[in-house]
Design a protein that fits this description.
Length: 498
């Protein structure tokens, strides 16, 4: 193989199904979701029915994956989503979706840097006897330490990152399952399946009220699963590995969130869960205290102490997972001519070094900006950026579902359920989800004009409106970029579509 081909090709046969699952489950950071999103979904959403909201979202995403994985057998590309959209809806729309995807993955990594630094600044400062390590550093120093390590690891072969993530993810998932099962065993008499899973309770309050808030938080908790196809080029037998990894990842995330959230509701009592969560979390100011209090009572403080540090490792795993996803998107855009060709090169380890460096430089600059502006790493960097991610990824998922339908209409031969029914249902359901995420952006981001108005749909500050529209602006800019360059022969290759 020539050097030129090698430099433009990701290293093949480095990841199996489990390796891909490690990356995408790590990206969803389940422990962070359980300690951060679930208590808020209970408190501000549909109360005891929050587990049902997570189950519902998981089932919708499984339907999405039916059409999504059907496309993985036709297209194997590190750009994944934009290649699918390009194949079904045309090159220009594919480029637009790529720009929106990059916005989604860049913002979630920035969000995690903020959360990682903010948590460690608090958690590491006490002495070891008090549960810390006696190192008192500002949040941005911790974030930059992680930045250096993540950049170094992502410049190595992808299987090195998979091994790191596999270890961290296994510990995280194991601790959550132990906690959930222990709570359910100790509170078996308090389990109320109807309160948590009956449709009437799941949709209580309507889409504009409690149900909409709970579903919005559930949708945000699943962000990351769709990255399975990004690793297709580096996987062993991608046409089999990517679909299997997708179903395994969604299944694992759905089961984990459903069981542990149901355990939390059962442990606190379905009838009184909202009051209990409000009391323990101090009105939502400290949501992590809810799960940790239940673990303290039902397992022991030893596991709580471990889980407090596993939150940190979960965040680090998420950083590494999204760094890899970002780098491969930028690599695919560079290789196809959408971005400078130098970004479509790999290093000797087979890693997309241009994508890694661009992603790292951008993240470093944003960390420095937020630190210099004295903005809060969690209330500002985490909440603002993670809310943008939810909008961006949901937008692209809708486009993928529509693209699947369009592609198989032009290329018949696939079963009607995969080609039409499943993607149509998922497109409609995801469109509703996108509406919920956008209408509740003030709550997700904390950018309501006032605390009182955070309960009102569509009520947000001017900055909130800019951020909620950012993925759509990126989509339009990408589309225009494709149109402007369509006659520049050789500028944008058919790699967008293949």
């Amino acid at each position: 193989m020539s050097k030129e081909v090698t430099d433009n090709t990701l290293r093949k046969n480095r990841l199996g199904v489990l390796g891909i699952v490690f990356f995408v489950v790590a990206a969803s950071a389940p422990l962070v979701g359980m300690t951060g999103a679930v208590p808020v979904a209970i408190l501000a959403g549909n109360g005891a029915a929050a587990p049902g909201a997570y189950l519902l979202v998981g089932l919708i995403l499984i339907l999405f994956s039916v059409g999504f994985t059907a496309m993985t057998t036709k297209v194997t590309n590190a750009g994944a989503f934009f290649a699918y959209v390009g194949r079904g809806l045309g090159k220009n729309m594919g480029i637009g979706s790529a720009f929106a995807s990059v916005v989604g993955y860049v913002t979630i990594q920035l969000a995690i840097y903020g959360f990682f630094g903010g948590i460690l600044a608090i958690q590491a400062a006490p002495t070891f006897a008090d549960g810390g390590i006696g190192v008192n550093m500002p949040w941005y120093v911790w974030a930059l330490v992680a930045w250096v390590i993540v950049t170094a690891l992502s410049l190595l072969s992808v299987d090195v990152g998979a091994k790191v993530l596999g270890t961290l993810m296994a510990l995280e998932v194991l601790s959550l399952f132990i906690s959930g099962i222990a709570i359910l065993v100790n509170h078996s008499s308090s389990m109320d399946f109807a309160a948590s899973f009956s449709p009437s309770n799941i949709f209580a309050g309507g889409f504009s009220g409690g149900a909409g808030i709970a579903i919005a938080f559930a949708l945000a908790s699943f962000i990351g699963f769709e990255a399975t196809a990004i690793y297709g080029e580096e996987s062993i037998d991608p046409k089999r590995a990517v679909p299997r990894a997708t179903y395994w990842a969604i299944g694992l995330i759905t089961v984990l969130f459903t069981i542990v959230s149901f355990a939390m509701v059962s442990g606190l009592g379905a009838a009184d869960v909202v009051t209990q969560v409000a009391t323990i979390s101090e009105g939502g100011a400290n949501p992590a205290a809810v799960l940790f209090a239940l673990v303290d009572q039902n397992v022991g403080h030893w596991l709580t102490s471990i889980m407090e540090w596993l939150v940190v490792s979960s965040l680090f795993a998420g950083l590494l997972a999204f760094q890899n996803a970002n780098a491969r998107y930028i690599f695919a855009l560079g290789r196809s001519g959408v971005l400078p060709a130098s970004l479509g090169k790999t290093n000797k380890s087979g890693a997309p070094q241009g994508g890694v460096l661009v992603t790292s430089v951008l993240a470093g600059l944003v960390i420095i900006y937020f630190a210099a502006s004295n903005l809060d790493p969690i209330l500002n960097l985490f909440f603002w950026m993670s809310a943008v991610t939810s909008i961006a990824i949901m937008l692209v998922e809708i486009l993928v579902s529509v693209a699947v339908i369009r592609y198989f209409m032009k290329n018949p031969g696939t079963h009607v359920f995969k080609a039409l029914i499943a993607p149509l249902i998922s497109a409609l359901a995801l469109a509703v989800g996108e509406y919920l995420l956008m209408s509740r952006f003030n709550l997700l981001s904390g950018l309501a004009p006032s605390p009182k108005e955070s309960a009102n749909a569509w009520s947000m500050t001017p900055l909130g409106w800019v951020l909620v529209l950012l993925p759509f602006i990126a989509l339009v800019l990408g589309f225009v970029w494709g149109v402007v360059n369509k006659n520049d022969e050789g500028k944008i290759s058919e790699d967008v579509l293949s």
